[in-house]
Design a protein that fits this description.
494 residues, seven-stranded antiparallel sheet, alpha+beta, elongated, four-stranded antiparallel sheet, 15 helices
């Protein structure tokens, strides 16, 4: 008897709580579902490495007069740089040296140094990147983060300058590095306003205060999870498998009519989805604090952290290396070292590159024996448990845009966390990884929120059909809740 009364009381409490909380959060849920459809296809604007390669000019080997060592000597700086790359800048081949956070260019044709980046140079850089005429650009100094630099691109003292063209193209150039750090068009801005910005609550006044923005998103998504759970409980307790209710003169399991009937039906089908999406969205903000488990984090540095040495590249000049690959168009040449051997990585785009060793012919990827020997040394003291080559994405290494490189070398370390790393055989870089501590993030966030299941990702448009169906069902559930919430509040207020 007591248990029965308690169940009835809990049922009434769940229904009443869901009515009030649902009325308060129905618009937010609708907002998230609708913007979630757009975010499937509209990304927040950013300048990626692939963008830079597409817009970069091809290296002109005939204009290279200096070696990297000779260019470095022009800077009259002691020691050696952290990294060196050769690419076109302002229409001329230039060596870019990185030393800590500083980047400086030395032109490879005459040894002129580029330590500062004046306004006329930045204008030419922006115009070349955007493909617009420099004379048509509107120039504005960025004195505080705007909508397109608010997420970390803007740094105090970075001296960003915004260049805008009449057709809607906008480029942001850093006065500290001379790089285009952000680029938008009318289409990408519109897509962001329909998808990422409302979905992430990425509005400039709020996003400028990072800690406050994080707290608001966490608390709203946590409260939304509770609302969805209450609704699911209310629906399950009202559902009658024995069909003890009547609707239109016939037995039914659903006691309601009209919009409420549709809402309960949709809730029984999509209520659990609403719970998991709200909860996994909260997990994306890391609400429980930073993860102290940095297992396997030293492996990438051990693999590619060899100090730069100019003498390692004395056997072959960059000019000779470029001549060696003939008609292959090169956008950037990186000075690389792996396992004690130096090589040039000549890249045209994200899918096409050539490895040019100091001794031997150019090839499309690193020698596998050389790569495995380097990986084995970097894995010490734990060592390697297994190593294999994969030609298709697996459950932890996948990308619906297919931008992650394949094939890849998959290495499982014999450490306590059973760390797994994925290595691009074209460059020797670590391009992915996880350990036993990250399985929850993989499945509780990415799996539940993005539905990034391997079979769906590898067989599009299956993923699109499934996710769009779920999104439409969730959006319909939210629309009915908006109608019911409006009716409920109108009755109470009247």
């Amino acid at each position: 008897m007591v248990l029965g009364r308690l169940m009835i009381w809990l049922k009434k409490l769940a229904i009443l709580s869901h009515r009030w909380t649902g009325a308060a959060f129905c618009l937010l849920f609708s907002w998230w579902f609708v913007s979630g459809v757009f975010i499937m296809y509209c990304d927040y604007p950013e300048v990626t490495r692939a963008d830079r390669l597409v817009r970069a000019g091809a290296l002109d080997a005939s204009r290279i007069r200096l070696s990297a060592r000779e260019a470095w000597d022009r800077l009259q700086t002691r020691g050696a740089p952290d990294s060196v790359r050769l690419e076109m800048f302002d229409g001329r081949p230039a060596y870019w040296f990185r030393l800590g956070r500083q980047r400086v260019a030395v032109y490879a044709d005459n040894g002129q140094t580029q330590r500062s980046f004046p306004a006329d140079l930045n204008l030419r850089t922006a115009a070349a990147f955007a493909g617009g005429a420099a004379s048509m650009a509107k120039v504005e100094a960025v004195t505080q983060p705007d909508q397109w630099t608010v997420g970390g691109i803007y740094r105090r003292g970075a001296r960003l300058t915004k260049y805008s063209w009449p057709d809607g193209r906008q480029a942001y150039v850093s006065g500290a590095t001379g790089e285009v750090v952000q680029y938008t068009t009318t289409a990408t801005r519109l897509g962001a306003w329909l998808g990422p910005i409302p979905h992430w609550l990425y509005f400039t006044p709020l996003r400028r205060n990072g800690p406050l923005w994080s707290k608001i998103v966490i608390w709203l998504s946590g409260a939304a999870t509770l609302v969805a759970i209450l609704g699911l409980i209310a629906g399950l307790t009202m559902y009658s498998p024995s069909k003890r209710y009547r609707f239109a003169g016939s037995p039914t399991s659903n006691p309601y009519a009209g919009t409420k009937r549709l809402h309960m039906t949709l809730g029984l089908f999509f209520g659990l989805l609403a719970c998991t999406w709200a909860f996994s969205g909260m997990l994306s903000m890391n609400p429980f604090g930073p993860d102290d488990n940095d297992s396997g984090s030293e492996f990438p540095q051990m693999l590619s952290g060899e100090p730069f040495a100019f003498e390692a590249f004395d056997a072959k000049d960059p000019r000779d290396a470029l001549r060696q690959i003939g008609g292959f168009e090169v956008k950037v040449v990186e000075f690389m070292s792996l396992g004690g051997r130096a090589f040039y990585l000549a890249t045209r785009d994200e899918k096409s590159s050539r490895v040019i060793p100091m001794n031997g012919q150019a090839r499309s990827e690193l020698d596998r024996a050389w790569l495995m020997d380097s990986v084995t040394k970097a894995s010490q003291p734990s060592g390697i448990l297994t190593a294999d080559s994969i030609t298709a994405y697996d459950a932890y290494y996948l990308d619906r845009h297919h931008s992650l490189p394949l094939p890849a070398l998959r290495v499982r370390l014999n450490d306590e966390e059973r760390s797994v790393f994925y290595i691009d055989p074209r460059s020797g870089r670590v391009v992915g990884g996880y350990d036993n501590w990250q399985w929850m993030e993989r499945w509780a966030y990415h799996g539940l929120h993005s539905i990034n299941l391997p079979w769906l990702y590898n067989n599009r448009p299956a993923w699109d059909i499934v996710v769009l169906t779920l999104m439409m069902g969730g959006a319909a559930l939210c629309v009915t809740s908006v109608v019911i919430g409006a009716q409920f509040l109108r009755r109470k207020l009247s």
